[in-house]
Amino acid sequence: MTDMSDSVSPLPKVILVGHPNVGKSVLFNALTGAYATVSNYPGTSVEVSSGNCVIGEQRYEILDTPGMYSMMPITEEERVGRQILLHEDPHVVVHVIDARNIERMLPMTLQLVEAGLPIVLVVNILDEAERLGMKLDLEQLQQRLGVPVVGAVMKRKIGLEELFAAIKDYRVCPHKVFVYRNDLEQDITAVVRLLNGEYRLSKRALGMLLIQGDEDIKQLVEQQEDSDQHNELVEVLREIRFRRRADLHLQIGMERRHIGKQMLDGVVTQTQAAQETFGEKLSGWMMNPYTGVPLLLLVVYLGLFQFVGVFGAGTLVDFLEGFLFEEYINPPVIAFAQNYLTAEWLFELIVGEYGVWTLGVRYAVALVLPIVGSFFLVFSVLEDSGYLPRLAMMLDRIFKKIGLSGRAVIPMVLGFGCDTMATLVTRTLETTRERVISTLLLALAIPCSAQLGVILGLLSSAPPALAVWTIFLLGAFLLVGVLADRLLPGEKPVFYMEIPPLRRPQLYNVAVKTLTRMKSYFFEIFPLFILASVILWAGKMTNTLDVVIAGLSPVVRAIGLPTEATTAFVFGFFRRDFGAAGLYDLQMAGVLSVTQLTVAAVTLTLFVPCVAQFLVMFKERGFRIAVAIFVFVTAFAFGSGWLLNRMLVATGLLQ
Amino acid sequence: MQQLSEKAEEVLESLWILTVEGDQVGCLLTDLQLEADAEQLKDLLQRAYVEIRDNRILLRPEGEAEARMAVRRHRLAERLTMDILGIEGEEGNEQACIFEHLLRQGVDTKLCTLLNHPSTCPHGNPIPPGDCCTEARRSGSPGIVPLTELKAGESGGIAYLAASDDKKMQKLMSMGVLPGSDILLMQKFPSYIFKVGHSQFAVDESLARQIHIRR
């Protein structure tokens, strides 16, 4: 992508919209060559991705929006997408739908056309529709809709050329009007008559949204209309909504489906469907608790334990850290430093105890990246295969007990990779209450993969300690979840989720996705590692570190740990895994008993999230909630550490 | 014959649940917090619905029909308060206890027909069928039931949606769940999974209960 800062006039925009999981992001990548996260579960495009694309002589800006089910948003992400449609002035809006579900998705096309937007309809995933015995006459559909229709298999770039042509030659012409039932038409007319302001969307579409009680549109209209007119409008709307109180949404939904069905009559022909595939059988096994739980354990064992734990945290780390860094990279760097960095402060800064190189770079590259990278690989495979919605469905009942719905399974699982990323993803949850509870649980009881890797490494030498750690954390997760559910006001969540067909993960897709995640992780984290080592170095040089450690050490001693362990806790705030790695050094030095090690591991896992996660919490949940969570988590961590220490000492369980 | 007192009906209900649905042989008077000479027992003993042996109270065959109908009225009342009136939790239970005593002289039959002969109460316990239920089954009327009443693998047409709020209604519609569409229930536990068109969805019980199916 070239730099476009020299262009004065903004580029014409092409906006991609559509239901979740219909291939918008695949299309986005095909258009821009950039990589937006593509996956097989509803709701990955949390933020709007943008990129450029040249068609013919013209360069366009492409915007990919989060999935939405209709023009009237339910979740925050849907609102993000709709906001774009309300305020941007696009050259073309590309509506992507799944051919198999054309009947369900066409009503949204109708809404978009009704809104007067310059629509191109892309009927994607034609290949799988054919496998289901569906035949589509898109020529006829185009005539009936009055907008360009392109059939596509975007995964294999089929239909891309036709889409280019449709975008390039787009001519805005007055759209067809789809006529509803008489009584509804009268209500729409009554509302539209009172709209005199300037709007991006057609007044007819705004009228429909107003009748349905859309809050954003209400505000928009209030700003645009003069007050007399607006008062009259409010009165008319009140009257309509009362009269239609029993079945407003349903009636509108039925009307749109009716029009959609008429439009598809003769367009779709269904022939003999194919037999149940192996994928469908496997899908059934994954969702049946008797077979699903063993399958889940298998996934955890193979994916997390064997691949991330043994391969990532073992083999890869040994190679990078033990072999590459120790043997080949560190000696020349240290030799260089000894020869040329004669000033003590400079020597310390680069290769000292907390040096930028010895601590920052080595930890980031050799210890953390291989672990996080292998986790992201596993996560990408799971995500692409469509396993996650099935897991969500299996765990919904348990998650309801902690005030969350099955939907929250996705950020929780991602949290085992990186809690910071997971906290960002909690945005896809429907209510503020769910977002707060999941942010809290991520901060408290979900160890990220880097931390998990180090802690598993630490405790694996003492299996009973590992068991205590696991049980204690699980207990803390459930206890705090149940309490949060009891104490936080607000409604219980409702669970609904599309279960997409299982797909064989595409090697290319998985690889690119893993690399993209690693890249963003690395760019976000690497500077923090360096910053952390600089701060620690400065602290050491000015003795502030000693003061902080001295301040915290009574607390650390109170939970039965040696004073040296304090450093690990101070580190822990900069990076969760830093702290764990600090423990690793202590254990190597042989200053921790098994009890102490267990207490330290539990406390450190529960202890405050790293700086990055705290910043995201602050940004996503606001100052008050972030600080409240921070204080609670700190108190809870040390409280638990104290309690666990007492229990272990009293029972002599791990002696 | 005069109607049984409300208290006496409740004794019959408890006995039915413990001895017919459960596997106890009678139950201790103390379990029901009753004295042997309690007012509500007199009537029951006089009609020979129950008998008392060593502190245990036993349901006699003569009392079974009355007890079954009392349980039926209670569970129908629960359906009414919780599903139709939307009163939930403890409050719903209390209201149901008041309503059940009003469901006599054919009112229970009317309510049962209105609710379309439900087979379980909101807690999942069976509602003993009345004559109206047997009749409806015999005549083979299709009946409209919530999705939760279907068996896994069963399909039907969506008759109507009883969503209590706009958000739930929007969610259902976004899944293509609209009256007139066909739906196939694939699985009931741990969540409800159904297929509409070519898509599968998982929903929890609160949403599944809103979808009413014509079998």
From TrEMBL, chain A:
Transmembrane segments: 295-317, 363-382, 402-425, 437-460, 466-488, 521-539, 597-618, 625-644
Residues that hold GTP according to the record: 18-25, 43-47, 64-67, 124-127
Locations listed in the record: Cell inner membrane; Cell membrane
Major subcellular site: membrane
Keyword 4Fe-4S: no
Any Gene Ontology CC annotation: plasma membrane
Superkingdom classification of source: Bacteria
PROSITE patterns assigned to the protein according to its UniProt record, in alphabetical order: G_FEOB
Alphabetical keyword list: Cell membrane, GTP-binding, Ion transport, Iron, Iron transport, Magnesium, Membrane, Metal-binding, Nucleotide-binding, Transmembrane, Transmembrane helix, Transport
Binding residue positions for Mg(2+): 29-30, 32-33
UniProt entry tagged with the keyword Membrane: yes
Residue intervals of the FeoB-type G domain: 11-173
Lipid bilayer topology: Multi-pass membrane protein
Gene Ontology molecular functions: ferrous iron transmembrane transporter activity; GTP binding; metal ion binding
Role summary: Probable transporter of a GTP-driven Fe(2+) uptake system.
Protein family according to the UniProt entry: Belongs to the TRAFAC class TrmE-Era-EngA-EngB-Septin-like GTPase superfamily. FeoB GTPase (TC 9.A.8) family.
Name of the protein this chain belongs to: Ferrous iron transport protein B
Species assigned in the record: Pelovirga terrestris
Protein's gene: feoB
Automatic annotation (TrEMBL), chain B:
Residue ranges constituting the Ferrous iron transporter FeoA-like domain according to the UniProt record: 145-215
Pfam families: Fe_dep_repr_C (PF02742), FeoA (PF04023)
Domain of life: Bacteria
GO cellular component, one term: cytoplasm
SUPFAM superfamilies assigned to the protein according to its UniProt record, in alphabetical order: C-terminal domain of transcriptional repressors, Iron-dependent repressor protein, dimerization domain
Assembly with partners or alone: Homodimer.
Protein name: Metal-dependent transcriptional regulator
Organism the protein comes from: Pelovirga terrestris
Highest classification ranks of the organism: Bacteria, Pseudomonadati, Thermodesulfobacteriota, Desulfuromonadia, Geobacterales
